[in-house]
Amino acid sequence: MANYARIELHLHLDGSLSVRWAYEKALQRKIIEKSCSFRDFYNMVFRDNTQPHSVSINKFDLMCDLLQTPEDLSEAAYDLSRRLYSLGIWYAEIRFASQQHMKKGLKQKEALLAVISGTKKAMKEVPITVQVIDCMMHKGSSALFNEAQNVETIEAVRDLRKDGACGIDLAGYENNCDFSEYASLFQYAKSLGIPCTVHAGEMGIGSHVIDALNWGVDRIGHGVNCIQKTEYLERVVSSRIPLELCVTSNVKRDMNYGNHAVLSLMEAGAVVTLNSDNMMFARTCCANEHFQMKMLGVTDQTLKQCAMNAVQAAFCDEDTKNRLKEKIEKEEHA
Ligand SMILES: [Zn+2]
Predict the structure, then answer these.
(1) Inter-residue contact 166 to 133 (CB < 8 Å)
(2) Which one-letter DSSP state was computed for residue 105?
(3) Which residues contact 298 (CB under 8 A, 6 or more apart)?
């Protein structure tokens, strides 16, 4: 039985911890009371799932609080990489925002190095390739609010490109300020030759996707709201920009997959990849994303194409791409 759920391009470390790992770490680091049971913790983690984005995004704060030392960051990345392998993943790009992990005095580069070290430890033990994307963040009402930190993020990736840092992203609450204010940061990253993706058109309006296209990014995180206007959709399709779709993550409030734009995007000819976003918060994995697509009537051939799109869009070298493509071709006859 062919399984094309092998490549993860959009996966947040802090949103993809195992709930059990997070619970034990929270107890150990005294972030929750000793009296907090696993069931209480579970309810607390998922309480916000029904809230609007502007509120539910705060749930990441608790997970970031668990990940403030090199040891804990590394352990979390190791645990996630091993879990991905056990779920059948061959290649993954884990992302996190190093500037969210400086509460105990870490520099962004140290945080990034810690995450990379966890992935490397896993890669020594099991055959999986994992690279790390560092995310710039939307914070204040102007991009200037944390511009210095965002520049530091770009420079951390620049310094660790050879060690396993593979790209830059922009994450956080998309509607905080004028999206176009981030253009210069992407220009800077591109001038350094760093591959770029950006959360655009997820919570925000479809024109953000067009902004991102104009910056010359390599991929779009989500991008679903390009469906809001025919001209946006046509631009996305004609540009061949890969979209990192995360369907379950988008529909987790009501699980209404039928309302999601994924089928329209596929039918329009957009370059679609299927990803988990937050394995913990969205309670999903790549295999589930593929399963849900099958439930909507998406064929194996299209799922194979999504996997091939992901390989082609991956921030890795040509040898790795060729090896992954060969393996996907073999799946067809598995
Ligand atoms: Zn995301």
Answers:
(1) yes
(2) S
(3) 263, 266
The pLDDT score that the predictor gives to residue 247 is: 98
CATH assignment at residue 63: 3.20.20.140
Q: Is residue 23 part of a domain?
A: yes
CA 10–ligand 1 middle distance (angstroms): 6
- Report whether 247 contacts 289 (CB < 8 A): yes
Using alpha carbons only, give the angle 12, 258, 52 rounded to the nearest 5 degrees: 50
Alpha carbon distance 29, 27 (integer Å): 6
| 250 closest CA partner among 2, 10, 3 | 10
How far away, in angstroms, is 97 Cα from ligand 1 center? 11
Residue 1 in any domain: the answer is: no
Cα(332) to ligand 1 centroid in Å equals 29
pLDDT averaged over 10-residue windows placed end to end, the chain, 334 residues: 95 97 95 93 81 64 94 98 98 98 97 98 98 95 93 98 97 85 96 98 92 97 97 98 97 92 98 98 97 97 98 98 97 81
List the beta strands (DSSP E) in 173-268.
197-200, 219-222, 242-245
Among residues 129, 165, 18, the alpha carbon closest in space to that of 83 is found at: 18
What is the predicted pLDDT for the residue at 235? 98
Q: What is the number of domains present in the chain?
A: 1
Residue 17 falls inside a structural domain: yes
- Residues 245/224, Cβ–Cβ less than 8 Å: yes
**Is residue 243 within 8 Å of residue 223, measured between CB atoms?**
yes
Distance 328 CA to ligand 1 centre (A): 25
Please count the other Cβ atoms lying within 10 Å of the Cβ belonging to residue 329: 11
- Domain extent at residue 139: 7-331
Distance from the CA of 319 to the center of ligand 1, in angstroms? Answer: 27
Residue 165 belongs to some domain of the structure:
yes
Please, which residues have CB within 8 angstroms of residue 330's CB and are 6 or more apart in sequence? none
What is the structure's pLDDT at 46?
Answer: 86
